[in-house]
Design a protein that fits this description.
Elements (H helix, E strand, L loop, with lengths): L1 H29 E10 L3 E11 L1 H7 L10 H22 L6 E4 L8 H9 L7 E6 H6 L1 H13 L3 E7 L1 H6 L9 E5 L5 H6 L1 H9 L3 E5 L4 H9 L4 E2 L2 H8 L16
Parallel strand pairs: 2-3, 3-4, 4-5, 5-6, 6-7, 7-8
Antiparallel strand pairs: 1-2, 1-8
Length: about 260
């Protein structure tokens, strides 16, 4: 069909530009990262992991100029599978060896030859890696998800369920999915909803699940994540906080026992 041809054309273009540029140059141009920080009430924010991803907007700017993918989920999804494979080839270029790193990929990419080579290069230990799977992908491909999860966890890697809205959190039995982490997307104004789920979050935490609040792009999101004791925080506001110089010494000593 016309759509398939279009899709092949886009994918071929991306693959061609990757081959032309090579790992190092492609990584420089298209791979972005964002810190994921531990939210420790006593110590504030500590970066513990780096998420690496290929910037779709950069691809649209430089490779697929003028292509609008919002109207075609299928083209978009197929393209993300292609980008997963490139990311798995390039990841060793961009991450520091001791760095814990998070990759958001499609479940089907775990069964690709690129993933296999990536595993071999990592000497079959996925200990430094966290893999994020989108909730919609998990729901649509549950059997494959379970196989991918077991494979990754058996090699020491961790799994995150990504892209959870506050509505989804209360519907999905997260403990049953046996992931290591659940990533909830912050939306401006969703604080009351999250506060209502506090008891639910406590139960999830005691089952051993790490809760992350992502897309924390404003101070309200940061305050909510901090107050509700989300284990991990990520977003532009977190980037800003981590980049800010620590407060100058002097002033009031820290008092852990507010009256």
């Amino acid at each position: 069909s016309m759509m398939d041809l279009l899709m092949m054309e886009h994918i071929t273009k991306v693959e061609h530009s990757y081959r032309q540029l090579g790992d190092a140059r492609f990584s420089d141009l298209f791979i972005r990262n964002q810190k994921i920080a531990l939210n420790d009430p006593g110590r504030g924010l500590t970066p513990v992991m780096m998420e690496f991803f290929i910037s779709m907007s950069a691809i649209r700017q430089h490779v697929l100029v003028g292509v609008d993918m919002r109207h075609n989920k299928n083209v978009f999804n197929q393209l993300t599978v292609t980008l997963d494979r490139i990311l798995l080839k390039c990841i060793d270029r961009v991450r520091r060896p001791e760095q814990r790193c998070s990759l958001n990929i499609n479940i089907e990419s775990v069964f690709s030859s690129e993933f296999e080579s990536f595993e071999k290069r990592s000497l079959n230990s996925l200990r430094p890696f966290n893999f994020e799977f989108r909730a919609s992908d998990v729901m649509a491909n549950f059997t494959e998800f379970a196989a991918a999860r077991d494979l990754i966890q058996s090699r020491g890697g961790t799994i995150a369920l990504d892209g959870l809205s506050t509505q989804m959190v209360s519907i999905i039995d997260l403990a049953q999915l046996k992931t290591n982490m659940a990533k909830i997307f912050w939306q401006a104004g969703s604080a009351p909803e999250l506060v209502r789920l506090q008891g639910h979050f406590e139960r999830l935490r005691s089952s051993g699940l790490v809760l992350a609040l992502a897309r924390v792009d404003d101070p309200e999101g940061f305050a909510t994540g901090r107050d509700l004791r989300f284990g991990l925080l990520q977003g532009f506001e977190i980037d800003r906080q981590l980049a800010a110089p620590p407060p100058a010494a002097g002033g009031q000593p820290f008092n852990p026992f507010p009256n």
